[in-house]
Design goal:
Layout: H1 23-27, H2 30-53, H3 57-64, H4 68-75, H5 84-93
């Protein structure tokens, strides 16, 4: 005996365009969103650096002056584990030359 499965009805999905500056600006106050955006940008740059460097987590930790566990947190994107000032220092140690630009 063959069973027929019901075909799900198609539902209309509406997508609301969020803030063009990013999801943080949809979810947080302006000041907190700005900081989270900067932290996320630096964290992504560090993730790219780790992927391109070919270093082991232990070697990368030594180069960054931190622990292997912190390098693992970078690789996993654990943004809550890092302050903005620590991410800036780690990026500088990686040779990424972090800079800040302000726009009016």
């Amino acid at each position: 005996m063959t069973r027929k499965t019901a075909t799900p009805k198609k539902e209309k999905i509406s997508i609301r365009r969020g803030d063009p500056r990013g999801v943080f600006h949809d979810l947080f106050d302006e000041d907190e969103a700005a900081e989270l955006t900067m932290r996320a940008d630096i964290l992504r740059a560090l993730q790219s650096w780790l992927a391109e460097s070919g270093l082991t987590q232990i070697a990368a930790a030594s180069r960054l002056g931190t622990t292997q566990a912190r390098v693992s947190d970078i690789k996993r994107g654990k943004i809550g584990s890092f302050s903005l000032d620590l991410l800036v220092r780690l990026a500088a140690r990686a040779g990424l030359r972090p800079q800040l630009r302000l726009a009016a």
